[in-house]
Predict the 3D structure of the following.
Amino acid sequence: MFGVFLGGSAYARSAPSLVLRFDDNKSVSQWREVAEIFEAVGGRCSFAVNSATLSEEQWDGLRELSAHGHEIMDHTGQHAVFKLLLESSEAAERYRKAEFFDHVESEGLLVLCRPEIDLMHSGNVRVTACMTNGVCRSDDPAFVNAQRFSRKFYVPATKRIYGFGKDCGGNLFKREPSQKCSDFWGRWTTDSFAVGEIVILDDEAVQPSKDLLRAQARTTLSRFRTHGLPAPRTWIRPGGWETPIDWRRMKSVYGDEFGYVVADSTCGQGLAPYSPWCYRSDFAFFDMDKNVDEVYKRAVEVLNKGHSFSYVSHQWTADRTKYLEQCRALARKLKEYGVPMTTYAHIAEASARSCQNR
């Protein structure tokens, strides 16, 4: 019955498919519960994990999931591109001479990294503003219009970078003439500066260097290898305070150098919608108060347009029993109507094969 909903296309691995993605480090029991639900109807899930903070028990659980055909994805080591959490202070010290190195924290284990910034980018916005105890203010309408959660701005007078707002999960960010700000690494600041020009940076204008991306990829791949997992082939952007990464850098480093086939939440000129380097995802899963019919309808709307689609869940729920029952109901519905489930990596591989055969 799949063709009834998707324009008559018969199911094939290259056909539009649904990805069920579960982000961040959870207990093994939570991972196993959702995996078993979709396994029971022939589906597989994609789990995005932060490799620097996993316990041995979690690594054991991930190996089990991988053995059952589920995808284990690279969600960065510390849920951040501009932070490197390492196993020893000696390892952290080795980065001191790197051009991206800023300073070390957390008993010498956490390397905080600086970005490359393009102050002449055409998408930047220059306004006059001031900051008092971490609250930045400007009467220029362009200041409000340019704001967006996680967007950064540069202060030429102090040569520091800040971020607008920070409210991970509450969806409460509002554009306002007075905006509470974080430092570049996402921590609330109490800094002040006098009235002067600031540069609100376009996403493309604040990026990690390729050397920093290489350092991130190497550390993740080393951890996966050490703990007996297949090398990840999918990179998932950490949410929260960080800006998107230019897909051209991601493909150049993660794709061409390290063999990744797909990335999520990237930006940059020439990026086609639903390309493997900007895979579209929707956060309206059951932990965002959606019901089974709403979730199913949204997925089919995208699949009917010929695109594969990903739902993202952080398993944010106060009622775990209800959440799992909704997952079971969705699984039954997907099976009943023949909607295929797959993983990020399989979509990208099928897309590549399709391009080669044209």
About this structure: Residues 210-226 form the longest helix (17 residues). The mean pLDDT is 89. The chain is about 30% helix and 25% strand. The CA atoms of residues 244 and 266 lie 5 Å apart.
